[in-house]
UniProtKB/TrEMBL annotation, chain A:
Topological category with respect to the lipid bilayer: Multi-pass membrane protein
Stored InterPro entries: MetI-like (IPR000515), MetI-like_sf (IPR035906)
Family classification: Belongs to the binding-protein-dependent transport system permease family.
Cell location: Cell membrane
Swiss-Prot/TrEMBL keywords: Cell membrane, Membrane, Transmembrane, Transmembrane helix, Transport
Parts of the chain that traverse the membrane: 58-85, 118-138, 150-172, 203-231, 251-275, 312-330
A Pfam family that the UniProt record links to this protein: BPD_transp_1
Primary site of residence: membrane
Biological-process GO terms, alphabetical: transmembrane transport
The name this protein goes by in its record: Sugar ABC transporter permease
Gene3D superfamilies tied to this protein: MetI-like
């Protein structure tokens, strides 16, 4: 695999080719099969499936649980989005009404939840992703013994989710002059009166972004750290001989291309966790909904309709909308990092 | 801890300038990131008059075991013995870690290395469901569990945990990096496909396996959802659920806060231990091998 350096992304495609070759099915035979009638096409597919029976046996245990507890419920939830459902009576089919209301009349959604989520996601998504990669890289540059402890430190906010997120930040951001941030800024003379960092609608969003960035070293970070450490050290050696000087060049030309699968994983996880964030605004400001809806994200909107107003059908419609939003963001990022092998 | 600090000292001398500067920088940042752990440990030993100081303090001034006693008093009053909750949690979490990692790896291997018909659909489904907000899925999932007739059994704890799409996604990404030549060589030597998977693909992807195990443990140990929704009898509920009920549904939120602080510590420590052990494994395997 000496060609790995410049072409990390192609590995996937290549590997699949490799398997195909071993399948002992020549391309001409495949075309011949396709030309035959529909009946034999079914037979060919059956034969193909039979040939891969071992693969199916491998995936079955996971797939059974996955279908039962995730796929079926998600499909049911999507179906609910076309109904009026208050969690007590039977769902009543109402067609596209939920979606029509959502994108044309739901002012809270259009004025607050949607723009807030956009602002939040545009900064936290890429910001958290880059921060996670950079920290993973910095940790990888340390001697081996220290790595574990720094990985622990960076992962701490994810390890203590909910317990400490707001509690650590509240003393910093408290609105009176006792708050750490206020007292520092006051002493420096940058502000004249204490600012209400978490209760003033003008500041809450920024506080949310800051705190979420702080806690963005999650599973994507762990994967990228492992990916960086996994890069064959010989490549760096070879590149150094070829005259590569700066560490930045190393990152760009060796590290990132050699760990595309992990970069991709990190990107997807960054998108998913960013869009699924919601509780932080309520935790920081201490009120639900947040002051003047300044921290109202799409997830808060779903919670609001799902668990407070008990309009599960409408909450499901918002979830479907959020899914589409994530899917689109995902497509954009896969365009950046994806290789042809992964659909 | 002191010993390892001392060893770090020794290592510091052998680092180059960049590493020294970097270590210093990361120590400052790391100390800040570690604050939640400091808080959890200190909070558990704060006497009541310190628990409610506003703004909250990180360090305890007069440490006491008052909260521990409170928790013990509460648990001795509970109708179901505490050991039963603990057993449920340990049993479910232990089994979940083994099953989740095993099942996820089994699924990720063919997804990455065999191009079987439907692989694309399976992978797309995994990604798409990852993106669905969990809120509205609860009611349908409840119906599935009750239709399957596994309410109030350990299956209802375990099976939903086993459907962890992130694990499959992560393992698949790592298996994509395993060179096919390695697998092919074993196949030519006559190794069965399961052997290739178990003795070659899994060991090479050990970092990912360990990461999935960390996640699986975190999910299982902190899991309150299956206890709240799928378990009818108290004997079947988990330790985490029991601890979460200490402060929920109380008229005022002063009572039991001390016990809750200790409970938070008890919930956190296993996570910490599992993470340190497994992450250590991740880094250790990396240091030795690396995919060539």
């Amino acid at each position: 695999m000496s060609s790995k350096i410049g072409a990390g992304g192609v590995i996937v495609g290549k590997s699949k080719l490799g398997v195909q070759e071993t399948d002992s099915e020549t391309p001409s035979a495949g075309i011949g099969k396709r030309r035959a009638g529909a009946k034999s096409r079914v037979a060919a597919l059956a034969a193909e499936i039979w040939k891969y029976r071992l693969s199916y046996a491998f995936v079955t245990p996971f797939l059974l649980c996955f279908i039962a507890f995730i796929v079926v419920p998600v499909i049911a939830a999507v179906a609910l989005s076309f109904t009026y459902f208050n969690a007590i009576e039977r769902p009543r089919f109402i067609g596209w009404q939920n979606f029509q209301y959502l994108i044309s009349q739901d002012l809270l959604f259009l004025k607050y939840a949607l723009p807030n989520t956009f602002k939040f996601a545009v900064i936290v998504g890429p910001g958290g992703y880059i921060a996670a990669f950079l920290l993973a890289w910095l940790i990888s540059q340390l001697p081996g013994k220290l790595q574990k402890w720094f990985a622990l430190a960076m992962y701490t906010p994810s390890l203590t989710i909910g317990i400490a997120m707001s509690i650590v930040w509240l003393p910093m951001l408290t609105g009176d002059r006792i708050g750490y941030l206020n007292s520092i800024l006051l002493r420096l003379g940058w502000i004249e009166v204490p600012q209400l960092w978490v209760t003033d609608p003008d500041y809450l969003m920024n506080a949310m972004i800051g705190v979420t960035l702080w806690s963005s070293m999650g599973v994507g970070f762990l994967a990228m750290l492992a990916g960086i450490l996994n890069v064959n050290k010989d490549y760096y050696e070879a590149a150094r001989i070829d005259g590569m000087k700066s560490r930045l060049q190393e990152i760009w030309y060796i590290t990132i291309p050699s760990m595309k699968p992990q970069m991709l994983f990190g990107a997807v996880m960054a998108i998913v966790t960013t869009f699924k964030t919601g509780a932080i605004g309520v935790e920081l400001s201490g009120v639900n909904p947040t002051p003047a809806y300044s921290g109202h994200l799409i997830i808060n909107h779903i919670d609001d309709f799902g668990f407070i107003r008990f309009e599960m059908g409408y909450a499901a419609a918002i979830s479907v909308f959020l899914l589409i939003l994530m899917y689109v963001s995902n497509k954009l990022s896969w365009g950046l990092f994806g290789s042809k092998g992964d659909e | 801890m002191l010993g390892s600090l001392w060893r770090r000292r020794g290592r510091l001398n052998r680092m180059d300038g960049f590493q020294k500067l970097l270590t210093l920088l990361l120590i400052v940042l790391g100390a800040f990131m570690l604050l939640p752990i400091v808080y959890i440990f200190n909070h558990a030993f704060k006497p009541y008059h310190e628990l409610f100081v506003y703004p909250p303090t990180f360090l305890v001034r007069e440490p006491s075991l008052q909260n521990v006693n409170e928790l013990l008093a509460v648990t001795s009053r509970s109708t179901v013995p505490m050991i039963r909750y603990l057993f449920n949690s340990v049993f479910v979490s232990g089994l979940a870690v083994v099953l989740v990692t095993g099942v996820s790896a089994l699924c990720a291997y063919p997804l990455s290395k065999h191009r079987f018909p439907g692989a694309g659909i399976v992978f797309a489904a995994i990604l798409l469901t990852l993106m669905f907000a969990p809120e509205v899925v609860q009611i349908p999932r409840y119906l599935v569990v009750s239709e399957l007739g596994i309410m109030n059994t350990y299956f209802a704890h375990l099976l939903p945990l086993m459907a962890m799409p992130i694990g499959v996604f992560l393992l698949k990404q790592f298996m994509d990096q395993v060179p096919d030549s390695l697998l092919e060589a074993a196949r030519i030597d006559g190794a069965s496909e399961f052997f290739v998977f178990w003795r070659i693909a899994v060991p090479v992807c050990m970092p990912a396996v360990a990461t999935v195990a960390i996640l699986a443990f975190q999910n299982a140990w902190g899991n309150v959802e299956t206890s709240a929704l799928f378990m009818l009898d108290d004997e079947m509920k988990s330790f985490s659920f029991f601890l979460s009920t200490l402060t929920n549904n109380l008229a005022n939120n002063v009572a039991m806060q001390g016990a809750a602080a200790v409970a938070a510590l008890i919930m956190f420590v296993p996570n910490l231990i599992v993470f340190v052990i497994l992450q250590g494994k991740v880094i250790a395997t990396m240091a030795h091998s690396g995919i060539k």
